[in-house]
User: Fold this.
Amino acid sequence: MKNLDQRNQIIEYSLKLNSTNLSPLRSGNISLRGIEDDIEGYLITPSGKKYETLKPEDIVFMGLNEEKEKNSTNKPSSEWRFHRDIYVNKKEAHAIVHAHSLHATAVSSHGKTIPPFHYMIALAGGDDIKCAEYATFGTEELSKNVIKALENRSACLMSNHGQVAFGKNLDDAFELAQEIENICHQYTIALKLGQPKILSFEEMKKVLDKAKNYKKE
Assistant:
């Protein structure tokens, strides 16, 4: 089977969506950039299947220039469009994790950008975490909104929906999604005490410079 290792990786991290409570039941989706038959594209979780039942052959390959699955009896995740558009627009993206995580979804229901109340926000690539405007799941409009919110970022919230994060591999993308969920949890707690202190633009610039080497330390 083509791309067997990548297919197994997607299954492994799909199971982690449930085991870590990052995304319950069938919610969320995962993809990896890949090539099949000299076609550049990505492998993505199928639509509607429980993660615990996934087999390598269930993972769907989609071409970057296609809107139809290749050589699969399964339909791709309904969110395949923003996965494709992230890969097209973000050459550094090699893996994507989309989750309906509890606190990220709660914060996203307010449709607001998360300000720099904590320096760890820099892990998403900027001095705040944007929230993509709401649009019906699976639509071109939603994809455009996500791409806009990801400008100079590697993660964002999705209004009334959840979050999405990308990285150089699935481990990086999944870890970033966990970080976003943790930040959102902290933010909801901070708001219960009132408006949190916001770090200055100058301070966040320092943090962003240091964050480039965060995982190397």
In short: The chain has six helices and eight strands. The mean pLDDT is 93. The chain has one domain: 4-216.
